[in-house]
């Protein structure tokens, strides 16, 4: 075999290296590989750029999952995973959107007082809140795939069962059990993020949010056609279709390679990575798969180490505010559309007598169409966040979304017509959903693999606390004072904007952290004469 020069890209890691200091200083290395003489030359890559396909495999004796994911890149495997994760996300959105449609229907059909209507919404979030940490622990202890499968099958079973509820108490319990299952669906983001190369991660997680928007729009369209003819029971059954599809396709879903390595199951992780490389038509890195340090998995105290304490507390409030405001706006929308505008609600509430608290109005076709328009706002919300998040960074994107939502809430104080009301609700919902998306990008990036699912689970749990409280503001407090209701939502989001700015870590442009005991510098650099002078990544430190 003749001698020829190949270009070889090397991974610079923050751990120990096989190269000596003298080797690094000289920058000149000749490596004999299967009779081929290879000259290593420095190759400059832009920040976050993928490794070009023409580069040979890395020749370090060890590599990590992060290295393999970056080298294999984004391809057919990730597209399939995007659709599958999106189905779970779409199902979650549909189960949430049902709440704003089911509440006025049962209010009329079963003659429920407003506090029982609010409780029907809250019980779903009680279930979600109580289970979020549990699903996070299951995912960290037994695997992302296991936790996700169990939660989806649980939600599917009780979702279909709730369609047959004979009385209020039955549907209250069954919807609570549905909420318990939905609490595990956000773990799909954890699994998804761990298979994405750094350059594609933010955009892909945001694109998964498109499925959330599709789910909410599909639910309103479904209600528009199903509710007048077949009723709410059929709506509950048909809304479980994406969950059924996910359950059927779940056999294809692989376990997270990062989780397998953390569990000491290197062989399974390598098999998964080879499968991805084969599907993507990309080369696998050479050498032995390693982890920087074996750690205990998924302990609550890990979220409160000095390094992560402030991040955890601030993120909890940000997630609380996101869910409190998002679901509050969803519930307020139907109330505002039925009344016409804020001033109509104000004057209407003054004339309603106590004996009329059971008076109700079914949602009209016009209400469903306006609800559809405001729901469509989630699509531009995704696009705006997608454009902004890699330019401003995660923290500033969240702050911007909260501020614009607050301004729109304050503008609702003015007596405006139906068209202007729809426009303001459209803008407000676009940006609060954008803030939610930014939080979903930021949270898996900020925690190390050992506590990533638990961190996302606890944040999701705090979001459910906000969603649990919001029906009593949007549906019960609204009867007393519409202005106080809007002021609560506006004030909460302004505080969340401040909290976003005070987050100690910005995750823009850095890889997923394998361990809390090492830095995140997994960027790829060419080995050359300047290797020693390349600064180490400080993105793992609090700024």
UniProtKB/TrEMBL annotation:
What's the domain of life for this entry? Eukaryota
Q: Keywords assigned by UniProt? A: Cytoplasmic vesicle, Membrane, Synapse, Transmembrane, Transmembrane helix, Transport
Q: Where is this region: Disordered?
A: 514-543
Biased composition range(s): Polar residues: 528-543
Fetch the InterPro entries from UniProt. MFS, MFS_dom, MFS_sugar_transport-like, MFS_trans_sf, Orgcat_transp/SVOP, SVOP-like_MFS_dom
Q: What is this protein called?
A: Synaptic vesicle 2-related protein
Q: Please name the NCBIfam families in this protein's record.
A: 2A0119 (TIGR00898)
Q: How does it sit in the membrane?
A: Multi-pass membrane protein
Regions that span the bilayer: 81-103, 115-138, 150-171, 177-193, 205-226, 232-253, 307-327, 371-390, 397-414, 420-442, 454-474, 486-505
Q: What is the lineage of its organism?
A: Eukaryota, Metazoa, Chordata, Craniata, Vertebrata
Any one Pfam family match given in the protein's UniProt record, by short name: MFS_1
What is the protein's major site of localization? membrane
The Swiss-Prot or TrEMBL record describes its family as follows: Belongs to the major facilitator superfamily.
Citing just one GO molecular function, the answer is: transmembrane transporter activity
Where in or outside the cell it occurs: the entry states: Cytoplasmic vesicle, Secretory vesicle, Synaptic vesicle membrane
Under the heading PANTHER family, the entry gives: MAJOR FACILITATOR-TYPE TRANSPORTER HXNZ-RELATED, SYNAPTIC VESICLE GLYCOPROTEIN 2
Q: Which GO terms describe its cellular component?
A: synaptic vesicle membrane
């Amino acid at each position: 075999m003749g001698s020829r020069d190949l270009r070889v890209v090397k991974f610079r890691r923050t751990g120990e290296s096989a190269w000596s200091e003298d080797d690094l200083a000289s920058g000149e290395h000749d490596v004999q590989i299967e009779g081929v003489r290879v000259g290593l030359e420095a190759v400059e890559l832009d920040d976050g750029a993928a490794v070009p396909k023409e580069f040979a495999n890395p020749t370090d004796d060890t590599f990590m999952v992060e290295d393999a994911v970056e080298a294999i890149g984004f391809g057919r495997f990730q597209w399939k995973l995007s659709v599958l994760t999106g189905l779970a996300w779409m199902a979650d959105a549909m189960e949430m959107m049902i709440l704003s449609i089911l509440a006025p229907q049962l209010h009329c059909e079963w003659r429920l007082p407003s506090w029982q209507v609010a409780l029907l919404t809250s019980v779903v979030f009680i279930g979600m809140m109580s289970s979020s940490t549990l699903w996070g622990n299951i995912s960290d202890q037994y695997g992302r795939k296991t936790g996700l499968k169990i939660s989806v099958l649980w939600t599917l079973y009780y979702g279909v069962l709730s369609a047959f509820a004979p009385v209020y108490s039955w549907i209250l319990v069954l919807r609570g059990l549905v909420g318990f299952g939905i609490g595990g669906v956000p773990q799909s983001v954890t699994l998804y993020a761990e298979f994405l190369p750094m350059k594609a991660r933010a955009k892909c997680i945001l694109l998964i949010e498109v499925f959330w928007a599709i789910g909410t729009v599909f639910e309103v369209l479904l209600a528009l056609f199903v509710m007048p003819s077949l009723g709410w029971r059929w709506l509950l059954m048909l809304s479980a279709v994406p969950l059924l599809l996910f359950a059927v396709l779940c056999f294809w879903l692989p376990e997270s390679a990062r989780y397998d390595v953390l569990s000491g199951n290197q062989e399974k992780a390598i098999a998964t990575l080879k499968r991805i490389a084969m599907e993507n038509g990309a080369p696998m890195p050479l050498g032995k798969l390693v982890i920087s340090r074996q750690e205990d998995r998924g302990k609550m105290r890990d979220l409160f180490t000095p390094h992560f304490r402030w991040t955890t507390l601030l993120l909890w409030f940000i997630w609380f505010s996101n869910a409190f405001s998002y679901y509050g706006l969803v519930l307020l929308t139907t109330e505002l559309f039925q009344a016409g505008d804020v001033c109509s609600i104000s004057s209407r509430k003054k004339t309603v007598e106590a004996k009329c608290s059971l008076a109700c109005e079914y949602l009209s076709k016009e209400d469903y169409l306006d609800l559809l328009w405001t729901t469509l706002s989630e699509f531009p919300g995704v696009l705006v966040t997608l454009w902004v998040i890699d330019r401003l960074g995660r923290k500033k994107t969240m702050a911007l979304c909260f501020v614009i939502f607050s301004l729109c809430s304050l503008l609702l104080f003015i007596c405006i017509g139906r068209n202007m009301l729809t426009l303001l609700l459209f803008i407000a919902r676009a940006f609060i959903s954008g803030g939610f998306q930014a939080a979903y990008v930021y949270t898996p990036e900020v925690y190390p693999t050992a506590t990533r699912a638990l961190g996302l689970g606890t944040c999701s749990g705090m979001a459910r606390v906000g969603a649990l409280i919001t029906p009593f503001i949007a549906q019960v407090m609204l009867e007393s004072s519409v202005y106080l209701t809007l002021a609560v939502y506006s004030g909460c989001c302004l505080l969340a904007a401040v909290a976003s700015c005070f987050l100690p870590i910005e995750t823009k442009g850095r890889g997923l952290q394998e361990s809390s005991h090492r830095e995140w510098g997994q960027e790829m650099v060419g080995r050359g004469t300047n290797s020693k002078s390349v600064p180490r990544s400080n993105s793992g430190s609090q700024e």
